[in-house]
């Protein structure tokens, strides 16, 4: 978990610098979005690791699948149900972590709490975790299945690491784009 958090925060710094330039040239809005992204990503990492960590004796989701592209004889409806189930788990968590992050940041920078703004921040978190992250991780897990089918173990491991790093950068950029669009 610690490595995942450190890696995410480092990638977020690179993504924000790549999207907004050096911090000394950021507008207050860009700084606020960057801080929100860092705080939300930190909370999301902790929550997602908790929900994704295997637990002894725990059953899998719909149709026995942990992701949509898991090999097996599941129907299309069962595979889509996995995405929907994860949406209903992750979207509210995204809303909660984004609002909590914004609330904490408002206290740190000593700004009054604006309920309309908090609602929009929650929408960003809801959409980002429920749709963007959910969909990207379903595709990444599907790609992993493919990597291990067509590549030797070392190459598959390398491809998995590379695709997950690209996914993290894409996730950070999508969060910033969504923040700019909604906020």
How would you characterize this protein structure?
It is a single chain. The chain has helices at residues 2-20, 28-52, 76-108, 115-150, 153-182. The relative contact order is 0.14. The protein is mainly α. Helix 1 (2-20) packs across helix 5. The chain contains 5 helices and no strands. It is globular. Residues 54-59 have low confidence and may be disordered. The longest helix is centred in the last third of the chain and has 36 residues, at 115-150. Helices cover 78% and strands 0% of the residues.
Compute the CA-based radius of gyration. 18 Å
- DSSP helical segment count: 5
Intertermini distance? 30 Å
> Uncertain segments of ≥5 residues (pLDDT<50)?
54-59
Helix content: over 70%
Biggest β-sheet, characterized?
A: none
* Net shape: globular
The secondary-structure element order is HHHHH
Beta strand count:
0
Oligomer: single chain
